[in-house]
Design brief:
By secondary structure, the chain is α/β, with parallel strands linked by helices. The protein has a single domain, classed as P-loop containing nucleotide triphosphate hydrolases (Rossmann fold), CATH 3.40.50. The protein has nine helices and five strands, in the order βαβαααβαβαααβα. A five-stranded parallel sheet has the order 2-3-1-4-5, sandwiched between helices. The chain is globular, with a radius of gyration of 16 Å. It binds BIS(adenosine)-5'-tetraphosphate. BIS(adenosine)-5'-tetraphosphate binds next to α1, α2, α3, α6 and α9. InterPro entries: Adenylat/UMP-CMP_kin (IPR000850), Adenylat_kinase_CS (IPR033690), P-loop_NTPase (IPR027417). It is found in: Cytoplasm. One of its GO terms (molecular function) is ATP binding. Monomer.
């Protein structure tokens, strides 16, 4: 079973590459960003609270995210090739909760793919997406805050997986196809 985490700074290409990985390896895709945006679109209580954090460039509280993710992981049956976690874990507390969740169901993470992209390119990509996305977090002020939050709260997650020997750095600069080629060669070596 291939259970992958894909992470990196906002705009690094997590969602874009996840779609390609799902297509090639037939995995279940769980994006915490997509789950939250669905709740926001439905104007649920959780969505309204989440939007107040997201629009300011902050992370949604761990407890809320762990809750929403665990419900979705439990819904998977065992008859799958594996899953890709896109945008989760984003804090060390989330990584610890994930370890417990998976070990309770006899699963483990195969590898964490860490996409690295230069800061100017990240800002460029997100501003471009902001022209059509309608997302409250794709504007310059919020993007800068998201990048700060990433360095403080999410970058330490890499060390957690380095210690477990599950870390793979991926150069996230270049075309979508070039980056996917780099990812596929890592994943093919894990099968
Ligand atoms: P996400 O939805 O995960 O937001 P993201 O980081 O902007 O998305 P992503 O990185 O997938 O976008 P992509 O590069 O593919 O989260 C949104 C917010 O939700 C967070 O800020 C946080 O507040 C909250 N949240 C989510 N998960 C959470 C958690 N676990 N804990 C707490 N809070 C959480 O795409 C960016 C753009 O680049 C696209 O337009 C794409 O087309 C373009 N692009 C991609 N690859 C490219 C390439 N190679 N070249 C040029 N452009 C490219």
């Amino acid at each position: 079973m291939l259970n992958i985490i894909i992470c990196g700074a906002p705009g690094c290409g997590k969602g874009t590459q996840s779609d390609l990985i799902v297509g090639k390896y037939n995995l279940k895709h769980l994006s915490t960003g997509d789950l939250l945006r669905k709740e926001i679109a439905e104007k649920s209580e959780l969505g309204i609270t989440a939007e107040s954090y997201i629009s300011k460039g902050n992370l949604v509280p761990d407890e809320m995210i762990i809750n929403i993710l665990s419900k979705n992981i439990e819904a998977f049956d065992n008859d799958i090739n594996g899953m890709i976690l896109d945008g989760f874990p984003r804090t060390v507390a989330q990584a610890e909760a994930l370890q417990t969740m998976l070990s309770n169901s006899g699963k483990e993470i195969s590898t964490l793919l860490d996409l690295s992209v230069e800061k100017d390119e990240l800002i460029d990509r997100l501003l471009k997406r902001g022209q059509t996305s309608g997302r409250s977090d794709d504007n310059l002020e919020t993007i800068q805050k998201r990048l700060e939050v990433y360095e403080l709260q999410t970058a330490p997650v890499s060390d957690f997986y380095k210690k477990l020997g599950k870390y793979a750095a991926v150069d996230g600069m270049g075309s979508v196809e070039e980056i996917f080629g780099r990812i596929a060669s890592i994943l093919d070596s894990k099968k």
